[in-house]
Structures are given as structure tokens and as C-alpha cells.
Amino acid sequence: DEDELQDRIVAARRALGDRVVLLGHFYQRDEVVRHADYVGDSFQLARAATAHPDAEAMVFCGVHFMAETADLLSGSEQAVVLPHLGAGCSMADMADVDSVADCWEQLEALYGTEADDQGRQPVVPVTYMNSSAALKAFVGERGGIVCTSSNASAVLEWAFERGRRVLFFPDQHLGRNTAKAMGVPLERMPTWAPGRPLGGNTAEQLEQARVILWHGFCSVHRRFTVDQIERARAEHPGVHVMVHPECPMPVVDAADSSGSTDAIVKTVQAAPAGSTFAIGTEINLVQRLAAQHPEHTIFCLDPVICPCSTMYRVHPAYLAWVLEELVAGRVANRITVPGEQAEHARTALRRMLAVAP
Ligand code: 13P
Ligand code: SF4
Fold first, then answer.
1. What is this protein for, i.e. what is its function (predicted)?
2. Cα(44)–Cα(150) distance, integer angstroms
């Protein structure tokens, strides 16, 4: 039962001591994050992955691309363990390397490969952290960079200095919301639908493009709607509506603020007692914030419970199992990024860490 699982996790952690570091994303369920040494958003966890080079293993309670990133940024001897190998991300799966390479070839044919007289490349590729290591390597090898939801505008600024255009993937919404806030007009942000010639655009549209947005999205965040915001405002006058930038543009525009999971947490922490928040992000985080802040009224914008189903696969039973394996001297579910891919992917990640330390 649940209590027994919790006892097993605590006992295994005690037996392992400092040999193991446990990282947990904000979207993980409480029964898992309560055991984490670090809880954070994907950028904070990427940084935390570099902070314990002496630990033998890092158990990453999150999804596959985060564990890959931890493997890239931690020491090569350190094993990174993902408690459930099926904990992927449907958005990351929307940009496979073959489709992106096909897009890249078409763009090269259209724009050429020469820098302009200010030294700017025709296109700079930017990948959201929510992507495979193979894609981060693709980007790293082509002068590109990684971003997260907490540093997307600083990273886009970096890319605009180096390129006449940006190819942004996989999340069209984060790309659109960020570029729009930076003043890029919507007509200069075509969307690239993989599998169609020119991604479903005309050559003229691509010629005047500033940001080309890959047709990816988060199935959790795209559920939030402007109707839900209007209802929250009608039922709770004075409510502060706060959403994640993976939400569609009309939702971000209608909200009072948008930000990464960590920005959402910090806004709640800084608010005067008695505040009311309607939050558009994953339910585990919203419910935890509500429990931790009884001085506020906090609820999810979507009345239907909407967990990230892949994050949710990290059940305490898997956590107990991988920890007990480590106690027994075995490493289960190790995530490793192969050599040459790792080198290029690390280049793209290090560029991000230099832009937004
Ligand atoms: P952040 O942790 O960067 O806010 O991203 C949310 C998310 O969707 C993680 O998969
Ligand atoms: Fe992927 Fe969305 Fe889940 Fe984040 S919340 S892991 S983007 S599916």
C-alpha cells in the first residue's frame, strides 16, 4: 500500500545517503516530490544536475528529455536514472530529427547558406528544452541554442543577433508568445507543418519570416481557454489569472501574467495574504500551491483535472524500485546520451547557460 511504499523509499534513501541525489519536477505528484533534494522547473533542475558531481547516481523524477539533459550536464561517471522509461513528453515527440532535417534542407534551399554583410546567418535554430538530445545535438552543430520557458526571450534575443531568422521548435505556443512579446508581428511568424512542402507555407511567407514556428504543442496546456478565464473573472472579482507560456496565444493575452512554473510559484509566494489566483498549468503543481498557501485562494483554470499523463507515470512504486536497485549495487533505467550526439547537444545547452546563467 501507499504507506509501505513511502517507508521503502525513505529506507532506501537512508541506506544510500549522499551517494544519490534526487531531483523532482514541479509537475510530479506529492508522494514523489516529497523525497526530492531539489524541486524545480526544467531550467533549475538542469542547473541542479551540475551541482553534485560526487554523487554516484542522480534519480530524475520527471520526463525523459530532462533526464537526458541531466546526463549531458552531469559528470560522465554519474548514472542518471529515470524511474519509469515510459515517462516521455508528447510535445518533445512532435519534432523528430528526420522531419527537422527535412525542414532545414528546404530552408537552406530557399535562403542559401551564406551569412549577410553583418555576419548574420540565414537561420538560427532554437530548440525548447522539451526535445530529444538528438535534436539538441542537431541545433548545437548548426550554431543554435536551447531555451526553457524561463529564459526564452533572452535566448531569442541571442539568436536574433546571430540570424536573420529563427527556426523554433517544438512548441509553437512558447515561440509565438515569446516573439510576440518582443515585438515580432504575427504575419512574420509562419508555422511549419512537417510533411508538407515548405511546411504548408508559400515561399513569400517564408521570405519575410522572422520566426518559423514548428507545429508542436503541449497537450496539457493547450486545453486552457479564454472562456475559462472569463468565467474565473466573473466568479472571482479581483482574481489574478496566471498561465504557463505553453498555453495558446489568446489565453496568454487574456491572462494577467504568464511565466514558467518557477515564476508561477514565486508570484504566489510574493503575493499579500488573501490573494486569489486562477492558474493555467499542470494540476499537481496547482494543488500543491493551494495546499502550501492556505492564506490564498488558489484554483486551476480548468475545472476538469488535467495532469500530465507522462509525468504521472513516475509512481512511487517505480521510485522505490530504482532506489532499492541502487542499494543492491545495480543501476536500473539508466539514461545515457551517446558520445558524438552528447558533445553537440552539450554545446547547445552550454550556450543557453552562458546566456541565462
Ligand atoms: P518549465 O518547467 O520550464 O516551466 O516547463 C514546464 C513543462 O512543461 C515541463 O515539461
Ligand atoms: Fe510535455 Fe506538456 Fe507534459 Fe510538459 S506538461 S512534459 S510539455 S506533455
1. Catalyzes the condensation of iminoaspartate with dihydroxyacetone phosphate to form quinolinate.
2. 9
> 148 C-alpha to center of ligand 1: Å?
8
CATH architecture of 2-89+310-336: 3-Layer(aba) Sandwich (3.40)
Q: Is omega for the bond preceding 197 within 30 degrees of 0, making it cis?
A: no
Expressed in angstroms and rounded, the spacing between residue 348 Cα and the centre of ligand 2 is 21
Q: Could you tell which of 28, 33, 41, 94 is best to mutate to test the pocket of ligand 1, judged by most ligand atoms within 8 Å of the CB?
A: 41
For 280, what's the count of Cα atoms within 13 Å in the CB-facing half-sphere? 34
Atom number, ligand 2, closest to the C-alpha of residue 92: 1
* 5 in Cβ contact with 316 (< 8 Å): yes
Locate 34 and state its grid cell.
516529497
Looking at all shown ligands, the one closest to residue 224's CA atom is: 2
Q: What's the pLDDT tens digit per position in 258-314?
A: 999 999 999 999 999 999 999 999 999 999 999 999 999 999 999 887 899 999 999
Q: What is the CATH number of domain 221-300?
A: 3.40.50.10800
For ligand 2, the distance from its centroid to the CA atom of residue 230, given in whole angstroms, is 25
Residue 173 among known ligand-binding residues: no
Per-residue confidence (pLDDT) for residue 357, from 0 to 100: 73
The interface pTM score, or ipTM, of the predicted complex is 0.97
| pLDDT for residue 304 | 86
Q: Identify the segments of the chain with pLDDT beneath 70.
A: none
* pTM score: 0.96
* Domains of the chain by residue range: 2-89+310-336, 92-217, 221-300
Q: Is 147 part of any known ligand binding site?
A: no
89 annotated as belonging to a binding site for a ligand: yes
Q: How many Å lie between the centroid of ligand 1 and the Cα of residue 327?
A: 31
